[in-house]
Every structure is written in C-alpha cells, then in structure tokens.
C-alpha cells in the first residue's frame, strides 16, 4: 500500500529496468550486474520500490516523526 492505494511492483528484472529512466537504468544495470547473489533480492526490491512513490511517502513520514508528530493511524 502506497498513499492508501494497492500498488503492484514490477515483477521481473526486465520490468524493473523498463520502469526506470535512462540514467537510472544505467545505475540499475551497474548495481544489479555486480550485486552479490545473497544481496540480489533486497537490491531488486529496493529498485522496484523506487519506481513508486514509496520513497516520497517514507520521507514525509520521517519528517513528521522528526517534528515529534504522533503518526499512529
């Protein structure tokens, strides 16, 4: 769930790469092609999430926490 909406993440390496702009796709290629096998699942999840608004939503939540807001819903 991101911003209250169910979000389907890209489910393949190719789909993740296709969802990225050219510069980010180059970064993705460099990282994924050199990632240790044990780190690959987490790297793919991080990149898949980066194609959504999840990072922005997390940043906003951490800003609210830093201001001392009660963020329990």
Structure description:
The longest helix is centred in the middle third of the chain and has 13 residues, at 22-34. The protein has helices spanning 13-18, 22-34, 40-49, 54-66. The protein has four helices and no strands. The chain is an all-alpha fold and 73 residues long. The two termini are 14 Å apart. The protein has one domain (13-66).
Quick structural summary:
This protein is mainly alpha-helical and 73 residues long. 58% of the residues lie in helices and 0% in strands. The protein has one domain (13-66).
Helices and strands, with pairings:
Elements lengths: L12 H6 L3 H13 L5 H10 L4 H13 L7
Output the keywords.
mainly alpha, elongated, 73 residues
Report the total helices. 4
Q: Nearest-angstrom radius of gyration?
A: 15 Å
Main beta-sheet annotation: none
> Distance between termini?
14 Å
Task: Return the string of H and E elements.
Answer: HHHH
Mean pLDDT: 91
Percentage of β-strand residues: under 5%
Structural class: mainly alpha
Shape: elongated
Indicate how many domains the architecture comprises: 1
Helix content: 55-70%
How many DSSP E strands? 0
Uncertain regions: pLDDT < 50 for 5+ in a row? none
């Amino acid at each position: 769930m991101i911003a209250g909406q169910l979000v389907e993440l890209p489910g393949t390496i190719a789909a993740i790469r296709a969802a990225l702009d050219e510069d980010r796709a180059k970064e993705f290629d460099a990282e994924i092609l050199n990632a240790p096998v044990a780190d690959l699942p987490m790297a793919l999840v991080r990149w898949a999430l980066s194609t959504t608004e999840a990072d922005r939503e997390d940043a906003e939540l951490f800003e609210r926490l830093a201001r001392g807001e009660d963020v329990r819903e």
